[in-house]
Specification:
Number of helices: 7
Structural class: mainly alpha
Shape: elongated
């Protein structure tokens, strides 16, 4: 189903986030159990970190691309797009001119900016990538592409890069990593909060038409 309205976008985000939160809650309840062996407790936490990261990356990627699809379905012209979405639309057109000294390759691009900005825009589908490593820098880039305020995550960079991404990578690569119950619960709380923030940002951007140049 194409995402044509802000309500449809909100429903998709709500449904996706609901099952993720439910699974994370189940994992957290297991980790909070007291009557388990240290070995099982450690295994649960290590598994929990990987699942936390998976849902963090998975939701950001789905939400970002869902918002991009919603913007694409608004059938706007290029000159109606906010600069961040115009830049995304122009990326494909500029690919051929990359790393070349042929000035002639720039002529169609110049012609486009001179005479075709009032035509229907074409945005690439599923263009938002997390590169399977959603670091704070990649999150910043995604935020800029979508026109979202990254400052809401600026104090979370160390948590995202070290406590979440780096910890997940170490565990996924078979390295030993000990995380205690309190550290995991704190990480769980922070990730849930960031997921809610990202969802709210996208929903607000859609409702407020932040994707438009003159809203």
């Amino acid at each position: 189903m194409s995402i044509r309205t802000a309500e449809q976008l909100s429903d998709i985000l709500a449904t996706d986030l609901a099952w993720r939160k439910k699974e994370l809650s189940e994992v957290k309840s297991l980790i909070e159990l007291k009557n388990v062996s240290p070995q099982r407790h450690n295994a649960l936490i290590r598994s929990g970190v990987c699942i936390l990261y998976a849902h963090w990356e998975g939701f950001v990627k789905l939400a970002a691309n869902s918002y991009l699809e919603y913007v694409a379905m608004q059938k706007l012209c290029y000159d109606q797009l906010a600069s961040n979405f115009l830049a995304l639309a122009m990326k494909e057109k500029l690919k051929e001119t990359k790393e070349t000294n042929k000035v002639s390759l720039y002529i169609p691009v110049c012609d486009f900016f001179l005479s075709q900005l009032n035509t229907r825009c074409s945005l690439p589908k599923k263009a938002i990538s997390t590169a399977s490593n959603l670091s704070s820098e990649i999150l910043k880039e995604i935020s800029h592409i979508l026109g979202l305020d990254f400052s809401l995550y600026s104090t979370k960079s160390k948590l995202i890069d070290e406590k979440l991404l780096e910890a997940r990578n170490k565990i996924a690569h078979g390295n030993d990593l000990i995380i205690d119950r309190e550290e995991y619960i704190e990480l769980h709380t922070e990730v849930i909060a960031m997921l809610d923030i990202f969802r709210n940002q996208i929903e607000n951007a859609a409702v407020n038409k932040d994707f438009m140049l003159n809203k």
